[in-house]
């Protein structure tokens, strides 16, 4: 039997209902299967531990908790991430169709790169929840991403955390979501990891993307931004404090997506960060920590040359 979740009725229409694809306390996957929450959480924690970077494995108890511990010692940010993201996947209709592999790599993880491991789920859930509750249940992933970023709604995650501004040159001092919220500012990396975290709280796949050096020359600077999976493909833009006025539909409305920065010779290398460290050998290069090769990645250079070389 399927549960029916009522939508807020408009003045011109009767209440609409969306049938959940799975019974209560089970997690829906994109292939139509339903998995008991306890089984899904156990599998999620196992996957996170298998793919955690070496530096995190030296802090297993801190990240995953101590079973049977008291006074909160049985918790950890990895355990919180599994619980929060699986709960979001059960709760929000736009998350129901996210496939297991994409969920694991881009919703479940507790970090984007090597930023400090902090309890951002608890912090950002309070800021994102009112935005999600105000959306119609049939909202698309793109609709939700736009609302969280402050386009098309009366609030944003930036407003709801007390305000975040763009300040250049902050990484690696301020580039995790909790620090960004606490200080109220960050550069492109901190704004991006915070927006990614907010999307993941809502069950939306998102990842950090960037170039370690424009035109292959570190003296020309670097940049990070955000890609989100809309149910079909990866779209890109920035957290609003770093790039106001952008859309998810037009690559050329990003200040950095220009032919001068993405020549057809591919000299500007672009990578997307991921958590799965066993699918390929590509590394996401950290401009602030070049010798650190612990963040897995995907080469996105050709995609951005194709999108931006005509802008």
Give a verbal description of the structure.
Helices cover 33% and strands 13% of the residues. With 311 residues, the protein is an alpha+beta fold. The chain has one domain. The strands form four sheets. The protein has a five-stranded antiparallel sheet with strand order 9-8-7-10-11, with helices on one face. α9 packs across α10. The radius of gyration is 19 Å and the shape is globular. It holds the Pfam family Transglut_core. Keywords: Signal.
Outline of the structure:
The chain is built from 11 helices and 11 strands.
Could you report the average pLDDT, rounded to the nearest whole number?
92
What count of domains describes the coordinates?
1
Structural class: alpha+beta
Distance between the termini: 51 Å
Helix content: 25-40%
Rg measurement, Å: 19 Å
Tally of separate helices = 11
| Series of H and E elements | EEEEHHHHHHHHEHEHEEEEEH
Label the overall shape: globular
Give the low-confidence spans: 1-17
What's the arrangement of strands in the largest beta sheet?
9-8-7-10-11
Main β sheet profile = 5 strands, antiparallel
| Total beta strand runs | 11
InterPro entries: Papain-like_cys_pep_sf (IPR038765), Transglutaminase-like (IPR002931)
Protein name: Transglutaminase-like domain-containing protein
Keywords: Signal
Domain Transglutaminase-like: 166-234
SSE map:
Layout: E1 4-6, E2 17-19, E3 26-28, E4 34-36, H1 37-51, H2 54-57, H3 60-64, H4 77-91, H5 100-106, H6 120-134, H7 141-149, H8 157-160, E5 165-166, H9 177-183, E6 185-186, H10 188-201, E7 206-211, E8 223-229, E9 234-237, E10 271-273, E11 297-299, H11 301-308
